[in-house]
Each structure stands twice: as C-alpha cells, then as structure tokens.
Specification:
With 300 residues, the protein is an alpha/beta fold. The chain has a domain of 175 residues: Alpha-Beta Barrel (TIM Barrel). Helix content is 43%, strand content 16%. The chain has 13 helices and twelve strands. Helix 6 links the parallel strand 9 and strand 10. Helix 3 crosses helix 4. The longest helix is centred in the last third of the chain and has 17 residues. The structure holds NADP nicotinamide-adenine-dinucleotide phosphate. The site of NADP nicotinamide-adenine-dinucleotide phosphate (NAP) has 23 residues, from loops.
Length: 300
Amino acid sequence: MERIQLASDLSFSRLIHGLWRLDKWNYSTEDTIELVEYCLEQGITTFDHADIYGHYTCEERFGKVLKVKPSLREQMEIVTKCGIKLISSNRPEHKIKHYDTSKEHIVASVEQSLKNFRTDYIDVLLIHRPDPFMNPEEVAEAFTKLKEEGKVRYFGVSNFKRSQLNMLQSYLNFPLVTNQIELTAYQLENFQDGTVDLCLEKRMPPMAWSPLAGGKIFTSEKERAVRLREALNSVGKEIGAQSIDEVLYTWLLVHPAKIMPIVGSGKKERIQRAVNALSLTMTRQQWFTIYQASLGHEVP
Ligand code: NAP
C-alpha cells in the first residue's frame, strides 16, 4: 500500500484504521488480534486511537493484542490523542466535560496511554480538540519533554482551524506532522474554510475522520444525504466501484492534499472496500458531481 511521508523517518499507510468504536464491536482479544493482523496484511499499518475512546477503555483493549503478540508493535504506527476530559464513571473526578492541555495533563495522559498499549513509545500524539484555555508554552514544554524522553516520536493536532494550528506551531521547535479533521463529501466545511488549504501550504497531509460520515450516508433521509447517494451511485457506476463507500474513499484519495482516510469499521469486508478504492480513480468532473450534490447547487 502507498505510504505517506510525514517526516524523514515517519510514514503512515495511506489508509489508517480507527479504533473509536472498538468497545462497540464486542470483540474478544482473539477477534481483535485477527482484525489487527488483517489490517496489517492489507498494508494498513497505522492505527488511530484516543485516550477517551470507549470511555477510556479502547487503548487497553488494543494493548491486550500487543500483550499476546508483542512483535506486532514494530509493524505498526500508533497514533493517540489527549486533551479532552470526559464525564465518565472511569474518571469520577471529572465534574464537567472540558479540555485540558496543561503540561501536567498531557504528560500524565501519555504515561497512561503507554501503559494501556504496553508500549514504550507513541508514534504520533495529537491534541484532540482546540482548547480555548490553552497555554501554548505549556503544550510546547510537554511535547519537548515527551520527545526528549523518547515517549512520543512526533506531534500533531486534531480539529484545529488555521489560526489555531499556526498559533500552536509558533511555540514549537519542530513541525506538527498532521491535522486530523472531519473530511468527507458529506461535510465540506474543512474544504471551504482554509483548513485543507493550510495542510497544502504546510505540505502536511491531513488524516480524515468519519470518511463515510459516521455511517449516516447509508441511512439518512436528509435531502443532502439522498442527493449525495444518488451522485455517488451514478459516479460509482462510471468508475467501476462496487459500493458507495468505495466512491467516498476515492473522492478523498484523489484530492491533491494526500488525505489519509481513517477507516472506522471493524468488519473485514468494509475495510476491504476502502482498500479497493486505492485502485480506483475519478475525473475532475466526477469529483465536482459529488461536490455539487453535497452543496445542493452549482459552484458559483
Ligand atoms: P466512518 O467510516 O465514517 O463511519 C464508520 C461507521 O459507519 C461505523 O458505525 C460503520 O459500521 C458504519 N458503516 C461503514 N460502512 C457501512 C455500510 N456499508 N453500511 C452501513 N454502515 C456502515 O468513520 P468513523 O468511525 O466515524 O471515524 C473513523 C475514525 O476516525 C474513528 O475510529 C476515529 O479513529 C477517528 N475519529 C476522530 C475524531 C476526532 O475528533 N479526531 C472524530 C471521530 C472519529 P460498522 O462498524 O458496523 O461497519
């Protein structure tokens, strides 16, 4: 599978697998091992997590895979996030959902993630959401400490707009390597507000979360979804896609920003459809057919 270079000694697989929903799949450790090995066989080596997924339980579930098969660690890149504090029975001290990008919290969160994953290092740590109470000097101190200690190799952000990313970058001595953002034909905001432009400007390939609109695209009866499904079906026929998910992935993959879609399904046949999309292509006019269907009108 194609790889995307994010730094001289860091590359991600073009498709990433996301573990947000791991706790919902009711998988045993053996099932999870099978899933991880299936991804690796397909060339999907990058796995996306966050401390909070599954109410703070998904990292540990994944860690059980690495406990049984520690040799898998060197075949993969682990991405995780921190900075959101959820109200959860697993964190009874949180009285309100809030963000925490203090040095103390970032460092503590990484220490916990390392234990959960049973690993010595995280490949990329992302700040999960822009924090209106962020002290970027503290974030820089935390990142520098974690890098120097070898606990985190590289850093990035998630859901950051242009000004927020530029602001944090200005406090760091090393480049942020990615911005993980919502990118799907169903939700065009980041294509329109300068967020993707900044990725292009900085040569910083973005990770695309919810590339299938979290599954809404298959079932929603909203006008936008209905219009988009029609366009996806018609372009799909033209490009030889087997299903509309392949068309949605292709729409992201052909974009010049080197978008890395995060596949959110735990089902092998659905992961396979993302892989199929890597061999499809789409013309500019087909791309705009889908864009227009999502917009609901012609481009100006
Ligand atoms: P997605 O691929 O847009 O949505 C996955 C959902 O769609 C799953 O519930 C899946 O169900 C369903 N689905 C897939 N194919 C389907 C089909 N053919 N018919 C019906 N339903 C179908 O991705 P996502 O899970 O929302 O997000 C992907 C990853 O992005 C997450 O795992 C996480 O790592 C990351 N993420 C990050 C942020 C952030 O703020 N940084 C936010 C959200 C997500 P099945 O599981 O049953 O296949």
